[in-house]
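Q: Got a minute? One more chain.
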Amino acid sequence: MYEYIKGEIALISTEYIVVDHQGIGYQLFMPNPFVMSQKQGQTAQIYTYQHVREDQLTLFGFPSMEEKLLFMKLLNVSGIGPKGALAILASGAPEQVIEAIENENDTFLTKFPGVGKKTARQMILDLKGKLQDVVPDYFPNLFTDPKSSLASDKKELEEAILALKALGYSEREVKKVEPALRKEALTTDEYIKKGLRLMLKLS
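A: Always. Here it is, folded:
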């Protein structure tokens, strides 16, 4: 298996790039090929994954080792194939996907193309607590410290959600603003204030 290919970015399309290495053009399917647009015509190192089927051999390319490792982890989830894993990476950064899995945020995961509630739960079941080797530098406390800031943020968010319901907002109304709140790292009071602002926009 190829670990990476280093060569000139000869072509960029909507689905793949072509890397010219010693006169051979390698077609690499990427989550977001246009991230390489500034390097077209220049030499770049692309991390690769080779997917083999009986009737097809495909090379996938990634600008970072983190994206490649997360892609490989996603392939281990039942119901997710190469195209599905590529679509997930195209729609969200590795750290966002991992944070959603670790926080069991299936609402966030179902936003990705082809990921329904069942697949999102399967991702959480199969991958939670198993992604430390993918992006250890993004969340240094996420896997080792149960009292990490992320855990604290989650607790404060839950307290804010209860407070919004106590103020008279329905379960349905709260669920509409909850995804936006989950993207933030705030205190309980700040969550409540932001939740109220979002509620006003909905009304």
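A: The longest strand covers residues 43-53.
Q: Perfect, thanks.
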